[in-house]
Every structure is written in structure tokens, then in C-alpha cells.
Amino acid sequence: xxxxxxQRLQLKADELRSPVLKVPxxxxxxxxxxxxxxxxxxxxxxxxxxxxxxxxFPRDDVVARYRDVGAxxxxxxxxxxxxxxxxxxxxxxxxxxxxxxxxxxx
Length: 106
Hints:
Helices cover 25% and strands 25% of the residues. By secondary structure, it is of the alpha/beta class. The protein has a 3-stranded parallel β-sheet with strand order 1-2-3. It has a 3-stranded antiparallel β-sheet with strand order 4-5-6, with no helix packed on it. Helix 2 (34-40) links the parallel strand 1 and strand 2. The mean pLDDT is 89.
């Protein structure tokens, strides 16, 4: 998703709310606009990004947008593989490398 895709999705903003979001485009500046993040309001934001990537992803300002809406942040470069499990009522998550874990309810 880039900013244009996010704008199209926001036409149905009432359907965007989600407890978990895999952050678009590795947390680059070309996505995750404040409007989009505010519409989705995830409790958990997952950044898929390689360690020592040459692009400096994720950008600090993008991470801050997710934190500002109250999302817990998991990053593959810091937390390793991220495992999500659900029974349809709760979502359990665990960072393989970091051991960060928790539970979300729908």
C-alpha cells in the first residue's frame, strides 16, 4: 500500500478498524499516513523489516504514528519471527527472539 491506496481504503473508514496491522511498506515514508493509522487504530502494529537494512526502515516518525494511537510495536529485526494465534475471540502474539508476548481481544 502507498498513500494513494490508503486514501482509497479510507473511503470505507468504518470498515478499516483492526486489532492487528502488518505495517505497509516496511514503515517507509510512502505509507502509513496519520489519517490511515487513525482509521485502523491497531492495538498491535507489526513491522516486517530486515536487520541492518540499507533504507533505515522503519522510519521513526512512522513508528511514532502507531505508538500515538496506542499500538504496541513488534519488529522482525528486533523481535524475530512473530507468531500470531487466534481462537476467534482473542489473538495471542509472541516475538520469537525477544520473547515479547501478549493477548488481544476482538
